[in-house]
Amino acid sequence: MKIEKCKTASIILAGFLVISCNVKKDSLDNGSSLKNAYEKDFYIGTALDINQINENDSEVNNLIATQFNAVTAENIMKCEVIHPKWDTYEFDLTDKFVAYGKKNKMFIVGHTLLWHSQLAPFVRKIKSKDSLQLFMTNHINTIAGRYKGKIDGWDVVNEALNEDGTYRKSIFLDLLGEDFLITAFKLAEKAAPDTELYYNDFNIEQPKKRAGAITLLTKIKNSGARIDGVGIQGHWSLDGPPVKEIEESIIAFSKLGLKVMITELDVSVLPNPNKMVGANVEQNFAEDPKMNPYTKGLPDSVQVKLAQRYEDLFKIFIKHKDKISRITFWGVNDGQSWLNNWPIRNRTNHPLLFDRNNKPKLVYEKVLGLKK
Ligand code: 9MR
């Protein structure tokens, strides 16, 4: 009898601990919403995967529609998907994505026109400057042109810089030289005149890369090409980068006369091999259970740390809301996050505000709480 009582007590206690770090079950039913709370400050966006664009799950669909007022395509507009062969474009999913955004009255972001990664194989085989120039012209004209007046902002060029602020080696740099960025912005401006145009990169809040980004952005502006904003991706962790660096970057980029956005926000809670930062998708490490400690859920102590980290970030975002136009999370819920597979495959990460069951976490309540 005693044992039974004791068991019951521990079950109740364990249950209480779990509930204490998740928001009340029905907290979303009372109409609480990130997009409404931050309506006067900036857009609150998310990145959609194929299932979400196809509206396969009504619970997720409802969460997206009630919490977010901006959407980015996580993968379907990358070259290898949207432009797999020289003369072939696959627009079905992007048409659906754009219709989804319109239906829900969301700010629609196209990601991305030019990126060295996820290129279709035929592009990698191009050997001459003229052919690559032609590819770039066709690619931007056809895609940006099709969604002219429908997509609100384009990540025109993605990740063109190295960590030390120099130009990243890529087929574009090799064959077209540094000015490929200026050409891309000019082409995008022509094809989609009323669309905002952005440069998007990770780690550009860090001083060296930030300096390189400032040089690059200034060069684009001085060339006469139109550029409206800069996306700091925001693939961060519990311990870094320091908010001070983020704040300094927001101020520095804004001084260039650009809108600042956090475009791919997530906060990894897992151990980090080699103290890696950022989002270089080519880097990967071997699987190891020691590097995957939260497969059964995130302990309360880490939920609290995650909440604190996001609170610190959002305090800075709110302080600089006059400079920031959008904060986009890189995914809707933890199950969707790319961080479950990078830089080590098959891990259980918990980097977003909603858990794998679409339930708001403690961090959700804290981020909302800043606006109460
Ligand atoms: O989240 C994306 C993941 O599903 C893809 O496998 C990966 C490669 O295409 O790209 C991820 O998104 C990246 C984004 O497009 C650019 N910045 C870094 C993001 C995380 O890798």
Q: Care to describe what's here?
A:
- The chain is an alpha/beta fold.
- It has one domain: TIM Barrel, CATH 3.20.20.
- The model is unreliable at 1-20 (pLDDT under 50).
- It has 14 helices and 9 strands.
- An 8-stranded parallel β-barrel has the order 1-2-3-4-5-6-8-9, surrounded by 5 helices.
- It is globular and about 55 Å long.
- α12 links the parallel β7 (235-237) and β8 (259-268).
- The chain has helices at 2-20, 34-37, 50-53, 58-67, 79-82, 92-103, 121-124, 129-146, 171-176, 180-191, 207-222, 243-255, 300-319, 362-369, and strands at residues 43-48, 70-73, 107-115, 153-158, 196-201, 229-232, 235-237, 259-268, 324-329.
- The structure holds ligand 9MR.
- The site of ligand 9MR has 10 residues, from loops.
- Ligand 9MR is lined by residues 74-75, 78, 118, 158, 233, 264, 279, 281, 338.
Give a concise summary.
The protein is α/β, with parallel strands linked by helices and 372 residues long. It is built from 14 helices and 9 strands. The protein has one domain: Alpha-Beta Barrel (TIM Barrel), CATH 3.20.20.
Question: Any chance you could write out the topology, listing elements then pairs?
Answer:
Elements: H1 2-20, H2 34-37, E1 43-48, H3 50-53, H4 58-67, E2 70-73, H5 79-82, H6 92-103, E3 107-115, H7 121-124, H8 129-146, E4 153-158, H9 171-176, H10 180-191, E5 196-201, H11 207-222, E6 229-232, E7 235-237, H12 243-255, E8 259-268, H13 300-319, E9 324-329, H14 362-369
Parallel strand pairs: 1-2, 1-9, 2-3, 3-4, 4-5, 5-6, 6-8, 7-8, 8-9
The chain binds ligand 9MR.
